[in-house]
Amino acid sequence: MDERNKGLIKLLLRIGSYILVAALATAMTLAYYTDGGLPTAQSGKLQELKKLIVDKYIGDVDETLLEDMAAAGMVAGTGDQWSYYIPADQLQEHKDVMANAYVGIGVTIRSEENEQGFEILQVEPGGPAKEGGILPGDVIVAVDGQSVVGKDVEATKSIVVGDIGTTVDITFVRQGREQTVTLTRQEIMVQVASGQMLTEDVGYIRIKNFDSRCAQETIALYEELEQQGAKAFVFDVRFNPGGYKDEMVQILDFLLPEGVLFRSENYLGFTAEDTSDASCKDVPMAVLINADSYSAAEFFAAALQEYDYAVTVGQATTGKGYFQNTFELSDGSAVNLSVGKYFTPNGVSLAEVGGLEPQIPVEVDEETAALIYGELLEIEQDVQIQAALEAVQKELS
Predict the structure, then answer these.
(1) 350, 243, 241: which is closest to 13 by C-alpha?
(2) Residue where one domain finishes, among candidates 157, 189, 221
(3) Per the count of CB atoms within 10 A, which of 73, 163, 199, 277 is most buried?
């Protein structure tokens, strides 16, 4: 194994633990934004406690930090792992992530510093880092000459971000050798859908998330591969953290025949259904899933499986059962709050059944999973892709 790949085998393979440099990646969910609608007046115990600390605490007090910590604690007090608070200085970055666009150098790193620096997990195609020769497995140790060893991720991000067109020096270590490259920050348009022909008649589409542009890119790539001769498809939503419901529904509408695609119920008890028209793609399909397929990713796979339009391959998904709305608060902060439940076309709550079980189980170890996430494993060596390919080829024959 290449030395630069060895560091990836110790990764905690949970999407929630990763960030985009220059754009904080919080949990991605079936969500939409709404402004206001929440009370702004402070009262009761929290206001009393804040006044007590400000008036009598012997040390210096950052009142904004006090409020942020209190707000985060209040949301955490719901006990819901999918709800979270977003401080005002991180909200724009959160929106950038959901838009699949941000200004930066185009890398994804571990959110925890490993006492040697920040390990790079992914490098965005066409971005400054890719053009500068940075690779997954490299470890960032300094930015503009400032060491990041021992710093937290926010401190590191603050010196990586900057205005579009400005430059930044990134020092990294690869196989024990330190190198420095100068990169020009640019707007990164995250490539949401990527793929290729696996054989002369089977196309492969990897969907990175279901945020902005997902449906547009996925459908365009499907049609491109179809023109190249694809008569069957393998969709890959492994490590896909979900995204917007409407993006998922557009793709399912493109693929599936007339019928219900998605069911939901909000906090008021109102139920809703998203449906498909009669046009569809009646070809052999498979969907790759794993424990890091969340939210829209697992409901995408579940819908195709329930319609018997695709076979699911890989490992069981997480089973996320709530959807969130992002509410902006008066001070510029926000809360991403679970406000409803969602269900498969057949009315199944994946949370209640513990996730979607693949029809063709194919386990991989942590080392292999890390290589898959970093896009460092050759397709021929990816046993899950090969199992999916075999499944659709059987249907073609």
Answers:
(1) 241
(2) 189
(3) 199
